[in-house]
């Protein structure tokens, strides 16, 4: 390959056109492209892609260029393609790796039918500040959950590693790394974090994704301790490539190479290109800095030719692994056969039901068929809004609204509907009904990229509207649909039940109604703590202890004006029957090197309705070289329990499960006492002590 042809593989353009860009295609000026609607495309729908259009591009690349290297076409396929699933935060509420994997598999099947073979997902940023709009795209606040679910998404997109199949797409672990710590929740803002927290919390999901075989990684926009991630040699070259052994291409975020100028590290795109390539960014997304300058930089000796060779090799190898050299084309008939099939819709319905979190229930749920039901609120009749952020290919007309799902389910009852635009009319209807379901919450433009908020309260006016409804309703169910964890203090006593649903996707209406009617037991759990009030954030379950722990029942707190705990803890979510926990029993009181201890608890459904209980395992190390969190999630089991049924839930613990990484980069698990807690959420459960020993106890 000529130097220009190699550099071409590292140049990613947006929305190329086979006619307009014919000369560039013939010259192999770019090797990959992104089909996107803008620089923060998450909330902007566009015309979409079609196999025929992608085939025309491929034909130009393959037939008119000297070497005929096919293109790799990318798009942000984040939580579904034509069949839109719950936003990642909603999928996370399922605590269910299998459903995450299945959703990613279907997204890949549908997107590849439109010629897309590379998605910029999953996002693996651990999001502990819900003011940040991109919390919607995350798996929530916990690093174990993000690792567990992020790896499942990778497996789904990449079809378990069978990348060459026509229905597999390359995944991209993003945004490497620490982006979730944007100061003040302001998108793109600087990040300051020490190595222990960076490694144990923020790098962990990336390590898991690399272990799961993720094909590509995206470097993030922000600066970390003053160095933009696009130019971060220690984290990109030394850690990602060196220690984690990642061999695939690293792509910059959108125009992030060019943004090195705004960060004040480069005066022009020439310097920016040199900095980014040296740091280990292989592909320049849309700046054009590599295209303009890399051959010159190599010629002048500023950048070693070997760096360009390695980067081009990585891109070509990925294209080879994807089977693009054998067949770069997509069967134009496939989309009609695979988009939005009944099977895909059924999966979306299950995923949506799994994303429903029952926060409070004073006995009104599950609903029994009413004589007269009133469904109200801005999201009662909403369609496109249920899709959430980053749904480039979802269509409003495909969405089942909550109102329609109720009409279908309660065909024999009177179902009245309004969208709450005229609250006085809603009040009249509410008074007439036996049950009122009010669907409020956030529009998707309030979450996603560049959409941060200073207040986690529901949007203006909604609490007043709900309070007025509560006064006149016999029974009121409040359903809050959102792209982020909200502070629901003012709804603590409003209505007889409070339900949280992260934007649930194309089958959102069915999913919500399935749970409210009890056709599906509620099983969603909070993937992030819900604070009482915005001023409490960041407030995540895995905090480190202070030197002056608070007495939970005491009268003194840290805040003079509020509590220290969240309104609802991480992992919380009710079923329609109570579940009791007994235990914890250990198979041995001590854990030596190379050993495994089984920890078990008995969980019993003490009510009269079936439940799907999400049993969580937390550990706490009481002695280590660093101060370790008050609770670390290390395992989850989802257990179906019929009324009265009880089950022994068993987890295995070994030193790996209990270990952490110290400031010098060593994996450690010191001898000492641990608390083992098996729990329905981060704020409760049953506990016991386990002692980790230096030596395995010998025969007595
Ligand atoms: C976002 C990325 C996204 C990229 C391409 C950027 O603005 O930060 O998450 O993959 O655009 O659309």
TrEMBL record:
<comment type="similarity">
    <text>Belongs to the glycosyl hydrolase 3 family.</text>
</comment>
<dbReference type="Pfam" id="PF00933">
    <property type="entry name" value="Glyco_hydro_3"/>
</dbReference>
<dbReference type="InterPro" id="IPR013783">
    <property type="entry name" value="Ig-like_fold"/>
</dbReference>
<dbReference type="Pfam" id="PF01915">
    <property type="entry name" value="Glyco_hydro_3_C"/>
</dbReference>
<keyword id="KW-0732">Signal</keyword>
<dbReference type="InterPro" id="IPR036881">
    <property type="entry name" value="Glyco_hydro_3_C_sf"/>
</dbReference>
<keyword id="KW-0326">Glycosidase</keyword>
<dbReference type="InterPro" id="IPR051915">
    <property type="entry name" value="Cellulose_Degrad_GH3"/>
</dbReference>
<dbReference type="InterPro" id="IPR001764">
    <property type="entry name" value="Glyco_hydro_3_N"/>
</dbReference>
<dbReference type="InterPro" id="IPR002772">
    <property type="entry name" value="Glyco_hydro_3_C"/>
</dbReference>
<feature type="domain" description="Fibronectin type III-like">
    <location>
        <begin position="613"/>
        <end position="682"/>
    </location>
</feature>
<feature type="region of interest" description="Disordered">
    <location>
        <begin position="534"/>
        <end position="554"/>
    </location>
</feature>
<dbReference type="InterPro" id="IPR026891">
    <property type="entry name" value="Fn3-like"/>
</dbReference>
<protein>
    <recommendedName>
        <fullName>beta-glucosidase</fullName>
        <ecNumber>3.2.1.21</ecNumber>
    </recommendedName>
</protein>
<dbReference type="InterPro" id="IPR017853">
    <property type="entry name" value="GH"/>
</dbReference>
<dbReference type="InterPro" id="IPR036962">
    <property type="entry name" value="Glyco_hydro_3_N_sf"/>
</dbReference>
<keyword id="KW-0378">Hydrolase</keyword>
<dbReference type="Pfam" id="PF14310">
    <property type="entry name" value="Fn3-like"/>
</dbReference>
